Amino acid sequence: MTPAAGAIGRHGGGMCTRSPAIFTPAALRRAGVGDADLRRRVDAGALVRARRGVYTAPDACSSVRDVAAHGGRIACITAARHLGLWVLTRDERTHVSMCDGQRSYHPDTCGCVEHWEGEARGAPDTAPSLPRILRQIYRCRGVEEFFVVLESALRQGLINAHGLRWLRAHSTHAMREALALARHDADSGLESLLRWRLRRFGWTVQTQRQIAAVGRVDTLIADRLIVEADGVENHEGDRLRHKDLVRDANAAAWGYLTLRFDYAMIVHDWELVESAILGALGILGSR
Predict the structure, then answer these.
(1) Which pTM does this prediction carry?
(2) Could you tell me which residues come within 8 angstroms of residue 79 by beta carbon, excluding any fewer than 6 positions away?
(3) What is the pLDDT of residues 142-198, one digit of tens each?
(4) Smallest Cα–Cα separation from 257: which of 233, 280, 238, 231?
(5) Of 72, 77, 78, 224, which one is least surrounded by beta carbons within 10 A?
(6) CATH code for the structural domain at 189-284
């Protein structure tokens, strides 16, 4: 029998695909695992003791092992990765949610990022609610990361109207601006980031738009400029490169211009990306 999970990145930050489960004796007992069975499982390596009263699955990733050993609960971008959300940052530090009265069991040099919350202490095998995770991301990583993860959550239907109301009630001006702009149609965080950074120009920016004779494109700006945001895992090899060239030629035949940018350009060389978009729209005549 596999212990019942009581706990809970993708893309830019890397989604964690290994078991995220953290277990407590109380949760295991509810799943029918008694004390003697627990000892047998630990001896057999089916469970790993992280610290007194806290266990992990043997294939748990390093961040989950850190949370279990540290004290507190999984938090911020670490929690978002385990929910399968698009995380922009490649910061691999473990983020831990801590409440008043809790203490760290890790050494001072562990490198975990603590998020102190004014709420009731949660069990180590649970996570904060997604709205609280999003607020942690805003406080820790800023509004761009918040917007990217928020749109990913909307895309996957992981946040409901009640959660959005809670966020609005506990938001800053920047968060409210992001909430007002957020939609559910972005297929990647790069598309979300493009739309967020271009918002000041007032252009019509559509994501995942279907165009005749071209197909579905990542982003369509001002009805004429196609912007494709190519992840590192895509568009490698001669066959896929040829397919992209055919798409771009078909787009040009129908009056569209195509620009392609990769993750590094959009995230780290935005000035060049913005200049290219402005130049292309200057040629096309933006609407």
Answers:
(1) 0.87
(2) 8, 95, 97, 127, 128, 133, 136
(3) 999 999 999 999 999 999 999 999 999 999 999 999 999 999 999 999 999 999 999
(4) 280
(5) 224
(6) 3.40.960.10
